[in-house]
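Marked as duplicate of an earlier ticket. Keeping the data here for the record.
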Amino acid sequence: MTEQEIAGLDVQAVEGEINRLPEIVACRIVADPLGRPLEVHVLAHPGKHPKQVVRDIQSVALASFGLEIDRRIVSVVQLGPTGADGAEPAAAPLARVSIGAIQSQLEGKRATIRVTLTAGGVEATGFAEGSIATATRLRLVATATLDALRQLHHSAEAIEVEDASIGTVGRQEIVAVALVHVEPPHEYELVGTALARQSPDVATVRAVLDAVNRRISHLPGENPAG
């Protein structure tokens, strides 16, 4: 937007449009005298990762008003859900996690990978950004998968991607993913594999789920339903 367009921007209208997002409880924009957003404070329901909430806000502002909001000025506070006894609701069992979609967007020499997982009726989209280099593609997919998984299982916050690669066993192509789970003072190596029958991307997501499948229910703080 030009300075003239920004000066004529109705900040309250922008707040109102952002408040229409289903995950948003309240939005307050602090602007300078010219109407340029300096701070965007958001109160949101849990469920979506804060990064996704910020991206939704950016999309609404750009699509509705042509306003580009810098993600660095957006502050997201999520309300913690509580059950009848005051305890946090149990997370969906990992066995119910399924792959919703895998998308990629290329901009110059950078790539953004989006992986959507579903579990118990809850959908989560994870993101990863990096080089478009072929050698980094599977690692980005694995990182985006973990980003989505953290939204479904909070205990997965302690897991990081170490490596992801494709190879051949016999006559089959497989994707192998190495993860590390940090539980101070210990670190545990997790390895998962999947046949690359459909595509390396799908196999990478399956390999990540395979790696954490026998571990996540034993992570501290996890209270699986069932």
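See parent ticket for discussion. The radius of gyration is 20 Å.
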